[in-house]
């Protein structure tokens, strides 16, 4: 039984197996084994296209934590299938590319383990129907992205870029978590499909709009929307295959996926339409505007990715206009924008993936990617040049490349929105102008990319290696993508009918039943406004490109210290400073103080509860009588406890303390709890050994200096804690709040095959708890090991900053 | 100061095997009687700790060439892995199964997946306890 759930697990499994490969015994690059994973999954997912294009969807559930409605449910529909095909398809190509990009001297096991981790997490995001499971996968993509950006962790900039991306995307992730929990509070279900079904009722709820904004926050941070875009250029410190895969083709589109997935939920809100469209358009403009000033090819592509993501985002915003006045067959007029968005999303992955790989080739072969040092490579690297031209002309929106089609459709959708009866009419009227200006700027940076790199003067003295064509293995993946760019232009409707139309049914389920959401994509639709806009883009673009030196001064209007980057680092710096000050104010290096904090909290919280709930009235008449033997043990334990206070040497204190532990063990024996008695005995033994080991390092046994607090206060705290503890222990027996649940466990022999109820609970009924405890124990162990062994010793040099 | 610990050494050599046997017994008996993975692991760990106390650490390290951090990690992997194992059979996460089998020599024996799960628990306990104690002792 091979389900989508298992398909998600396969990359994780492979990631766990990658470190087992031994480099020496292996002649072949590990990448070839890794390649099999996305390639096989891609082929497997392709087999779903016929059924999905006929409108089928596939749901499969594995129960996870049913009591909290958290189940590992996968939902395969048109939308998730498109994303999954991109993830596995581009993933396979990027893996091939990386085999030639990364030499065997690099830490390949780490690289491929992280890459597979990302692949699994990303598949999890797009297939998850359960919001909590989706959230976990969502954060996992952030984590794997962090690890991949910091792959060359000896570079300071890599670490900073990784930190920046993690901080920004994870804070957005928290927004999503809060938003999901709010949705759960409103609808009472964790399943996205069920949330969509109940939307007509839940949209009246007070938390509905806050939930929407929180989820949008997550989507915007992940998809690098203004003003959260700053992490994407810094993330370019990652190896280029990673940039091509995560930071242009897949991960940054997770935010767009989320917007598309939740359009049926929130799309009817006017605020959704305005927020998504505006943020998308601002990002589109700001990204393209900033791309022009970049001199690093990768940074240029990063800003161009930001800009293109903004464009896709805005199209999804425009598409939600269809839901504003209730879904009807007339709404199809506006859904065209969302169709264009999905189409451009696919196109962007093809041409931007190819462009990133081209930059990687240039960087790899020539040793630089600074456009001031490049030039005249067209004749020296003809294949690379061809791919770059196809990619950038597609991005600029020129025929015969797929970017032209989606750009035209983008223009169509910004023109159609003019007919929308909006509350903010002036803003809506501006939309086509912003779109057009941003397209002109896009054209300019595409020209810059091609002309500055491949034409002009060849400057060999500025390069680290003389220019030469890349090996065929490296050219393979970008060539495939470039071929796709052209193929999609000529046969766009194959894609449109089989993939995009079913995806549209997922985005607009309410309209899908009433009208055909498909759009026929045509290369030529006569002389209309869209075509004139494109011609205008080309003319204005060429003029702007030629006059670039004259108007480049505009960028000096935005000095470095006013940038969002500066804001980010200021916030980071201030946060660190403030939190350090706060921490230092209460971390006094006196154990006495720390104990006081803990016990004061205990007194206030537990004691306060005892008093406020009135449960301090104890009835001990029902309790069993105390036998003489129990008295003896209790009294001797009391004597031991008090004598600790007066012991002269530390050794005595430790031994007397362990007497207390063994006393408890004896009590367990008397009260017929052999499991607990055994455990207590062994734990006590091991702890005593641990104490004795630590004993060696402790300073001489002397009273800590009397400091601030008087003895009286300490005495009061001690007595209060003791009293509260005793009362709590006795009060537990008081009223029964619910019936005993032990009768269920008495059947352990039939249910779990074990006669030991305690262990049947630990290993079977509540195995989840035990599993997590084991993991926590492991983490604690590793933590202690790290603290003790890897501490910064005096005089050690900081090697990581070299 | 080099003390002559002949008696301690002799006793420990003998006692360690008793403790080891006890730990295996406790581990296996956990299904029906007191015992189980946690306690079995702890007893096993205390056997190792006893060896480390009686002899010097380097000698024992050579005799027992495990990296206990890895033992702990392996244990956690096994425990979590059994959870995923049940998924492969279409069951819910961490579903445990048991059955009665006729084995030669043992007769009718109950075999359960809890044992695998508990093996993981035991390994984590051994690994973590020994790692912590060794780290503290060696940190000179």
Automatic annotation (TrEMBL), chain A:
<keyword id="KW-0739">Sodium transport</keyword>
<dbReference type="InterPro" id="IPR050616">
    <property type="entry name" value="CPA3_Na-H_Antiporter_A"/>
</dbReference>
<feature type="transmembrane region" description="Helical">
    <location>
        <begin position="770"/>
        <end position="788"/>
    </location>
</feature>
<feature type="transmembrane region" description="Helical">
    <location>
        <begin position="624"/>
        <end position="646"/>
    </location>
</feature>
<feature type="transmembrane region" description="Helical">
    <location>
        <begin position="6"/>
        <end position="22"/>
    </location>
</feature>
<feature type="transmembrane region" description="Helical">
    <location>
        <begin position="244"/>
        <end position="265"/>
    </location>
</feature>
<keyword id="KW-0812">Transmembrane</keyword>
<dbReference type="Pfam" id="PF13244">
    <property type="entry name" value="MbhD"/>
</dbReference>
<feature type="transmembrane region" description="Helical">
    <location>
        <begin position="29"/>
        <end position="49"/>
    </location>
</feature>
<feature type="domain" description="MrpA C-terminal/MbhD">
    <location>
        <begin position="637"/>
        <end position="699"/>
    </location>
</feature>
<keyword id="KW-0050">Antiport</keyword>
<dbReference type="InterPro" id="IPR025383">
    <property type="entry name" value="MrpA_C/MbhD"/>
</dbReference>
<dbReference type="Pfam" id="PF00662">
    <property type="entry name" value="Proton_antipo_N"/>
</dbReference>
<feature type="transmembrane region" description="Helical">
    <location>
        <begin position="111"/>
        <end position="127"/>
    </location>
</feature>
<dbReference type="InterPro" id="IPR046806">
    <property type="entry name" value="MrpA_C/MbhE"/>
</dbReference>
<keyword id="KW-0915">Sodium</keyword>
<feature type="transmembrane region" description="Helical">
    <location>
        <begin position="374"/>
        <end position="396"/>
    </location>
</feature>
<protein>
    <submittedName>
        <fullName>Na+/H+ antiporter subunit A</fullName>
    </submittedName>
</protein>
<dbReference type="GO" id="GO:0006814">
    <property type="term" value="P:sodium ion transport"/>
</dbReference>
<keyword id="KW-0406">Ion transport</keyword>
<dbReference type="Pfam" id="PF00361">
    <property type="entry name" value="Proton_antipo_M"/>
</dbReference>
<feature type="domain" description="NADH-Ubiquinone oxidoreductase (complex I) chain 5 N-terminal">
    <location>
        <begin position="65"/>
        <end position="112"/>
    </location>
</feature>
TrEMBL record, chain B:
<keyword id="KW-1003">Cell membrane</keyword>
<keyword id="KW-0812">Transmembrane</keyword>
<keyword id="KW-1133">Transmembrane helix</keyword>
<feature type="transmembrane region" description="Helical">
    <location>
        <begin position="71"/>
        <end position="94"/>
    </location>
</feature>
<comment type="similarity">
    <text>Belongs to the CPA3 antiporters (TC 2.A.63) subunit B family.</text>
</comment>
<dbReference type="InterPro" id="IPR007182">
    <property type="entry name" value="MnhB"/>
</dbReference>
<feature type="transmembrane region" description="Helical">
    <location>
        <begin position="38"/>
        <end position="59"/>
    </location>
</feature>
<keyword id="KW-0472">Membrane</keyword>
<feature type="transmembrane region" description="Helical">
    <location>
        <begin position="114"/>
        <end position="137"/>
    </location>
</feature>
<feature type="transmembrane region" description="Helical">
    <location>
        <begin position="7"/>
        <end position="26"/>
    </location>
</feature>
<dbReference type="InterPro" id="IPR050622">
    <property type="entry name" value="CPA3_antiporter_subunitB"/>
</dbReference>
<dbReference type="GO" id="GO:0005886">
    <property type="term" value="C:plasma membrane"/>
</dbReference>
<feature type="domain" description="Na+/H+ antiporter MnhB subunit-related protein">
    <location>
        <begin position="7"/>
        <end position="131"/>
    </location>
</feature>
<dbReference type="Pfam" id="PF04039">
    <property type="entry name" value="MnhB"/>
</dbReference>
<protein>
    <submittedName>
        <fullName>Na(+)/H(+) antiporter subunit B</fullName>
    </submittedName>
</protein>
């Amino acid at each position: 039984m091979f389900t989508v759930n298992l398909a998600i697990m396969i990359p994780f499994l492979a990631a766990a197996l990658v470190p087992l490969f031994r480099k020496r015994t292996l002649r072949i690059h590990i990448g070839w084994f890794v390649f099999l994973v996305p390639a096989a999954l891609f082929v497997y997912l392709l087999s779903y296209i016929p059924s999905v294009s006929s409108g089928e969807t596939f749901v499969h559930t594995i129960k996870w934590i049913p009591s909290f409605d958290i189940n590992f449910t996968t939902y395969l529909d048109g939308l998730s299938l498109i994303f999954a095909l991109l993830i596995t398809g581009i993933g396979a190509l990027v893996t091939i590319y990386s085999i030639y990009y990364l030499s065997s001297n690099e830490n390949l096991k780490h690289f491929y383990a992280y890459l597979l981790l990302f692949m699994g997490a990303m598949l999890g995001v797009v297939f998850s129907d359960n919001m909590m499971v989706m959230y976990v996968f969502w954060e996992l993509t952030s984590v794997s992205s962090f690890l991949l950006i910091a792959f060359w962790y000896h570079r300071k900039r890599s670490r900073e870029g990784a930190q920046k991306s993690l901080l920004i995307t994870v804070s957005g992730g928290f927004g999503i978590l809060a938003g999901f929990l709010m949705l759960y509070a409103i609808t009472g279900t964790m399943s996205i499909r069920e949330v969509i079904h109940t939307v007509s009722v839940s949209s009246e709820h007070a938390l509905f709009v806050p939930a929407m904004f929180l989820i949008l926050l997550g989507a915007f941070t992940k998809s690098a929307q203004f003003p959260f875009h700053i992490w994407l250029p810094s993330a370019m410190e990652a190896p280029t295959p990673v940039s091509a895969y995560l930071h242009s083709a897949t991960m940054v589109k997770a935010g767009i996926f989320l917007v598309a997935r939740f359009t049926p939920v929130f799309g009817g809100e006017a605020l959704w339409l305005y927020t998504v469209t505006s943020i998308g358009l601002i990002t589109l403009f700001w990204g393209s505007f900033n791309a022009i000033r970049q001199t690093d090819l990768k940074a240029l592509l990063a800003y161009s990715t930001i800009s293109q993501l903004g464009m896709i985002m805005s199209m999804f915003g425009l598409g939600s206009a269809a839901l504003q006045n209730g879904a009807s067959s007339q709404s199809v007029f506006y859904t065209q924008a969302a169709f264009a968005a999905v189409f451009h999303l696919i196109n962007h992955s093809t041409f931007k993936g190819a462009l990133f790989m081209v930059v990687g080739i240039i960087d790899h072969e020539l040793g630089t990617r600074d456009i001031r040092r490049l030039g005249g490579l067209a004749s020296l690297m003809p294949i690379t040049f061809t791919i770059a031209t196809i990619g950038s002309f597609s991005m600029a929106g020129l025929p015969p490349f797929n970017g032209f089609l989606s750009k035209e459709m983008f223009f169509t959708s910004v023109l159609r929105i003019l007919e929308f009866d909006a509350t903010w009419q002036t803003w809506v009227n501006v939309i086509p102008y912003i779109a057009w200006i941003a397209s002109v700027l896009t054209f300019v940076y595409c020209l810059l990319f091609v002309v500055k790199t491949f034409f002009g003067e060849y400057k060999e003295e500025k390069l680290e290696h003389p220019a030469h064509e890349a090996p065929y293995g490296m050219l393979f993946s970008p060539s495939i993508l470039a071929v796709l760019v052209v193929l999609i232009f000529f046969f766009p409707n194959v894609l449109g009918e089989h993939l995009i139309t079913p995806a549209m049914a997922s985005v607009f389920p309410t309209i899908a039943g009433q009208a055909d959401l498909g759009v026929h994509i045509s290369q030529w639709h006569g002389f209309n406004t869209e075509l004139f806009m494109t011609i205008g883009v080309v003319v204005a673009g060429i003029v702007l490109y030629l006059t670039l030196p004259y108007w480049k001064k505009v960028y000096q209007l935005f000095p470095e210290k006013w940038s969002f980057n500066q804001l980010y680092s200021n916030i980071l710096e201030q946060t660190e400073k403030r939190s350090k000050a706060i921490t230092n104010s209460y971390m006094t290096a006196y154990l006495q103080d720390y104990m006081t904090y803990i016990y004061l909290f205990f007194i206030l919280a537990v004691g306060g509860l005892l008093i406020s709930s009135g449960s301090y009235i104890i009835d001990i008449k029902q309790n069993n009588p105390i036998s003489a033997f129990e008295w003896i043990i209790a009294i001797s334990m009391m004597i031991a406890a008090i004598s600790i206070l007066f012991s002269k040497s530390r050794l005595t204190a430790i031994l007397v303390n362990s007497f207390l532990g063994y006393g408890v063990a004896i009590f367990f024996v008397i009260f017929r709890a052999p499991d607990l008695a055994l455990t207590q005995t062994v734990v006590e033994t091991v702890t005593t050994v641990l104490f004795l080991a630590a004993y060696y390092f402790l300073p001489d046994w002397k009273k800590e200096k009397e400091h601030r607090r008087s003895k009286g206060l300490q005495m009061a705290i001690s007595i209060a804690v003791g009293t509260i503890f005793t009362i709590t222990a006795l009060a537990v027996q008081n009223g029964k709040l619910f019936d005993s649940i032990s009768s269920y466990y008495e059947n352990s022999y039939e249910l779990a095959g074990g006669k030991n109820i305690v262990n049947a609970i630990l290993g079977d009924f509540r195995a989840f708890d035990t599993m997590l405890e084991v993991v926590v124990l492991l983490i604690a162990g590793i933590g202690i090991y790290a603290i003790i062994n890897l501490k910064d010793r005096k005089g050690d040099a900081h090697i990581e900053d070299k | 100061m080099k003390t002559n610990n002949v008696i301690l050494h002799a006793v420990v050599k003998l006692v360690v095997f008793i403790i080891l046997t006890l730990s295996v017994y406790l581990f296996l008996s956990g299904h029906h009687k007191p015992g189980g993975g946690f306690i079995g692991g702890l007893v096993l760990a205390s056997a190792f700790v006893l060896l480390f106390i009686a002899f010097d650490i380097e000698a024992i390290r050579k005799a027992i060439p495990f990296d206990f951090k890895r033992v702990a990690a392996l244990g956690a992997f096994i425990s979590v892995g059994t959870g995923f194992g049940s998924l492969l059979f279409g069951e819910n996460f961490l579903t445990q199964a048991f059955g009665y089998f006729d084995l030669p020599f043992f007769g009718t024996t109950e075999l359960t997946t809890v044992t695998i799960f508990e093996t993981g628990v035991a390994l984590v306990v051994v690994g973590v306890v020994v790692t912590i104690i060794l780290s503290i002792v060696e940190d000179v």
